[in-house]
Amino acid sequence: MEKVHLTEVSLKTMSLTRSPRQGLVSADSSAETTLAIERPVDLLFTENSFPALGKYDSGDFALTRQSVSLSGSLPRPMQNNDTAQVAMATSGRSDSAISVRSLHSESTFSARSAFSLHSPDDEEQLPLVFLNEPNMKLYCQICHMVYKDPVITTCGHTFCHKCVLTADSCSVDQMKLNPVVSNIAVAEQIAELIIHCKYGCCPVPGGPPGILQVDAGRCPTTIKLGQRSVAALSQALTLYKKEKGDHESTCSYRPVQCPNNPECPPLVQMDLEAHLQECKHVKCPYSKFGCEFVGNDETMATHLSVCRFEGVKDFLRRSEERSGELHAVLAQREQELAFLRSTLGRLAESLEQVEKRVETRLDVMHENQSKLSEDFMEFRRDTTVLSDEISHINARLNMGVLGSYDPQQIFKCKGTFVGHQGPVWCLCVYLAGDLLFSGSSDKTIKVWDTCTTYKCQRTLDGHDGIVLALCIQGAQLFSGSADYTIIVWDISTLQKVNSIRAHSNPVCTLVVANNLLFSGSLKTIRVWNIDGSELKLKKELTELNHWVRALVASQNKLYSGSYQTIKIWDIRSLECVHVLETSGGSVYSIAVTNHHIICGTYENVIHVWELQRKERVRTLTGHVGTVYALAVMAMPDQTKVFSASYDRSLRVWSMDNMICTQTLLRHQGSVTALAISRGRLFSGAVDSTVKVWTS
């Protein structure tokens, strides 16, 4: 490599624009700076420092460290089309000159990069002047600077760690960059590079930022890069710091400040001791206790002889020592307090987690307890029903009427109609078509086939309230609702043909007899003439003491139930002909056989009267809830009465001996409605189902 004496350097600051494919495509000259350097300098350039000089190979252009004297200036400014003017000479010449552009671009390795290991974005930029030019293999191909924290990527190439994180792809093979492992070998080579002490370097006067030179009047020491121990250097470099210590932290040329007064002129470490002997800003050693004396070392001795604090210096020393001890104790207590706070925080978090777990388990326990309570209550109800069943069987055995128990007459559940979205409150059978109608809280009436398909044939919509009552005459269905209306339906077409507002309160019950429709509500019964699909009010029966929930027509008589009263009306004259007094609260259901009048009450009992004499002959017990419905099944040899109750059960009663012969338990809610057709029993319940029972 040939040596070149650098006598003049003309650096022109320019702004460059870059084309992605062609590199530098334009350069705008902004100013020219002429450097007149009067003392030896060390400058380091490489061919990568000036891309515009790429046409020169390494044999034509090379600069090595050379101490020269520079003076003068260039004869003319550089033109825009100038790339470089290089005057080459042998080592014996001293008048050679080089005029180059100063290239400032983040993507191009500039003159600044040759003297700084760190990018302009680093928090601290340390002076970095190499004694010899580093090997080109130690330069990153992305930032074109000496590697900083070199890492090997997935493509096998080495780059700076920061470059890997910021670059989109490898500059060599365009593959995506991902760091794999630190390149310890390269880091160790960089750590062995020789650099000048930072206190022996200074910026080139008037030069661009980052261009440094060796200051002959300052520290001449050179160190290995790995010996520089600063936070700004990469961890890989400090890993190889030598054991002989960090020269720069103890350098005699290190700038220091006078400890007596910050207004004293700047000093270096080697001059500090001499300065302190002459400094006129020395404070009294007792200044922290209030002494305001300031002087030099000579006047300080005189002052101490008269200083009022000198006589109590032992006391002050002990006080200061004690204060130091107290501060140490206080610091220790603060550490302990911080530890306790941290422990308390962890305990609070643990306690909160424990509370959450306990709350969750308590919720589960309460839920299980509620479920067990419900199961226990249901078990008690079932046990009561079974006990009553056993009691009735024993009573039948004691009475010698065992023959009345016919195994062939045991009723079993044969199926369930499912479809309603709410409790079923009423049932009605159309014998001519084997159809069953059911009214529900879902405001609909469902039509069920009870002969062939056993499926819902149609859903009738029309009411705005709960459907509470149903009855049939001929081919017409009448429905009463909590919306105060009665709707007339044509069974053949299952279409609504008429609707009237029948009462000012819910219509609780309906019954048809002698072409008359009777509707029961609060303290009133209204009688309607049926004229085709038209309903015309004929008469209103009053003098009733409560809700009329039960109406039955039989043998030209109308039986109505209200609070502890059954009234018997003559259908032809519409006059009350008899009143039966009862007990057990309101009458919810009535049934009439050839020999008896039967009613179910709110207080769980069933009362039986002799039909002709109107005398009460028996009170049937067994249910543990309100008796909502009664139905009669008349057979040639016997008559059976079915009762439905709030206790979810149905009971079968033999009217020959007034005993319960069977209890039916299949519903999951209160049983509210009954209907009989062709030897089959239909029961509707609050569980939204209709069950079919046969013997």
Automatic annotation (TrEMBL):
An example Gene Ontology CC term for this record: nucleolus
Domain RING-type stretches: 140-174
Positions annotated as zinc finger (TRAF-type): 247-310
Alphabetized UniProt keyword annotations: Metal-binding, Repeat, WD repeat, Zinc, Zinc-finger
Keyword Repeat attached: yes
GO molecular function, one term: zinc ion binding
Family matches, as InterPro entries: WD40/YVTN_repeat-like_dom_sf, WD40_PAC1, WD40_repeat_CS, WD40_repeat_dom_sf, WD40_rpt, Znf-RING_euk, Znf_RING, Znf_RING/FYVE/PHD
SMART domains attached to this UniProt entry: RING, WD40
SUPFAM superfamilies reported in the protein's UniProt record: RING/U-box, TRAF domain-like, WD40 repeat-like
GO biological process: Notch signaling pathway; ribosomal large subunit assembly
PROSITE patterns, per database record: WD_REPEATS_1, WD_REPEATS_2, WD_REPEATS_REGION, ZF_RING_1, ZF_RING_2, ZF_TRAF
Sequence ranges assigned to domain TRAF-type in this UniProt record: 247-310
Protein's UniProt keywords contain Glycoprotein: no
Repeat (WD) residue spans along the chain: 417-449, 460-499, 620-663, 664-695
PANTHER family referenced in this protein's UniProt entry, alphabetically: E3 UBIQUITIN-PROTEIN LIGASE TRAF7, WD40 REPEAT PROTEIN
Descriptive protein name: TNF receptor-associated factor 7
